[in-house]
Write a structure and sequence with these properties.
The protein is of the alpha/beta class. The protein is built from 6 helices and 13 strands.
Length: 285
């Protein structure tokens, strides 16, 4: 999101890889799709100015959450976004950098263990985009997990100079992991129940995730299409988005999908959206 955030990633990156993680436990198979919301970090922001290019947040404080999501499907498991990184959990007071005070109260690996999973049990990992707060634990999934990454997003992150602020060390396992690059939309399990949808503008290859659940119905995970509930209501655009025009077009496309499917919309970084989801390890199905 900012050069400052890339520096944070570099401070933490060396501690993120846990060698030899294997499954000493095993989750029971599932008959229907489940959605788990995991706490993968928190951010207190002393000045939210950059989260709207129209001045509404200038000088105002705010709090954001940094979730990860596990989608269990009869055909496999998907991790959507990878949070701030488990190394931050070793800092009781968190990490302050500029306006951001970051904390990681519980490790992702411990949350996975609570539902019978280890990193090597995760079949797919995908990211709404490649900013540091969405890829912090990515390198834990280097062994057998297939990485689903938008080709334009990866190209932008690895270009010289990068198309947006990022830090390759946070997710450099993509070089040796099983990589499935794609463009546009992507049907993860081939049955329409878990679909990655193109929503560029925040970054060149930004995505959202649409999940169809048997009892809950459709759920849309926003990535960083919006950072706050108010930004969604007012269609506010952050100053650090790579394209304002693409952002507005993505607002329109995704909101039409949400309306047509009567989908529940989760603003991933909004504390109230996260709090409204079942408290882990409970899940939506």
């Amino acid at each position: 999101m900012t050069t400052r955030r890339a520096r944070i990633a570099r401070r933490l990156g060396a501690a993120l890889f846990v060698a030899g993680l294997t499954s000493a436990w095993s989750a029971e198979p599932v008959a229907t799709v489940r959605l788990y919301a995991l706490d993968c970090g928190q951010a207190d922001v002393s000045d939210m100015a950059s989260f709207a290019d129209s001045g509404e947040y200038d000088g105002k404080t705010g709090r954001l959450v940094v979730p990860c999501f596990v989608i269990r499907h009869p055909k496999g498991t998907l991790l959507w976004d990878a949070g701030l990184g488990d190394a931050l959990a070793d800092r009781p007071d968190g990490l302050v950098d500029g306006p951001f005070h970051l904390r990681m109260p519980v490790r992702l690996v411990d949350q996975l263990k609570a539902i019978g999973l280890a990193p090597d049990d995760v079949d797919f990992i995908s990211f709404s985009h490649l900013h540091f707060d969405h890829v912090g634990n990515a390198n834990l999934f280097r062994n057998r997990t297939t990485w689903l990454i938008d080709g334009k997003e990866l190209s932008g992150a690895t270009s010289t100079p990068p198309a947006f602020d990022t830090d390759l060390a946070s997710f450099d396992a993509y070089k040796t992991a099983k990589l499935t690059p794609f463009t546009g939309d992507f049907d993860v399990f081939g049955d329409g129940s878990v679909r990655i949808l193109a929503a560029p503008g925040h970054t060149p290859g930004h995505k959202v995730l649409l999940i169809k659940l048997r009892r809950t119905g459709a759920v849309l995970l926003s990535g960083d299409l919006y950072h706050t509930v108010e930004n969604r209501r007012q269609k506010r655009v952050p100053t650090f988005n790579t394209s304002r025009a693409e952002t507005l077009a993505s607002f329109d496309r995704i909101e039409r999908i949400v309306k047509n499917m009567h989908a529940r919309f989760v603003v991933q970084h909004a504390p109230e959206s996260f709090a409204a989801l079942p408290k882990f390890p409970a899940y939506l199905d």
